[in-house]
Amino acid sequence: MAKPSDVLSMLSLAAFLISGMPLTYANLIVNGSFENPVYSGTYEHLGPTELPGWSTFSSYSGTVLFTTAYNPVSDGNQAVQIEVPGDWISQDFATVVGAQYELTFDLMAYTGYGGPGLGYAPCPCITLLDVNVGPISTTVESTSAGYQTETLDFTAISPTTTLTFTNPPSPPGWGNYPELDNVSVVEVSAVPEPATLVLLIIAVGAAGLATKRTVVF
User: Fold this and answer.
1) Can you give the residue ranges of every domain in the chain?
2) For tag attachment on the chain, is the N or C end more exposed, with fewer CB atoms within 10 Å?
3) pLDDT at residue 139, rounded to an integer
């Protein structure tokens, strides 16, 4: 027959185990590191439907998929360059209205752009990227010195949220070849993983049974 103190001990142990479990969340973005399609060359221009998970637009030759033979990447073996001002890539993903989300991505300027005689400042170059996700619209900046991780928090206002990265018009004298990698959107609401919920249910159930056994008639 369990004592009330035993019940409290079980609940305390369950709380300790649950608190020690990291809350992990799935990335809602498909092909966020641009590893598909697999490419073994230097770079290639992709058409509007050739980058899985993404819709793309280009007024030139297409979105640039490149490998480390062309320029550094921040995750995996490939990244993309949104080459021409006005070009964009976009992806829709399911969200819960009112839930909190975190967007992260790595941004860098092309290292080979600019230089004397080209009408642009020598590298290290500056790049700009317009970002639209849910109710958030902003412009972020990076350089050719290396990838910078950008983070944006937003609250979903629709069951489907659209993320769009656009190459904006460049200020005169700036090289603006934004290179993008490691895109992620995760829900940051404190919702435990299923395994954690199962543990909590078991602990509460065990505590309930133990409490019943303490009743003496």
Assistant:
1) 4-21+193-213, 43-187
2) C
3) 96
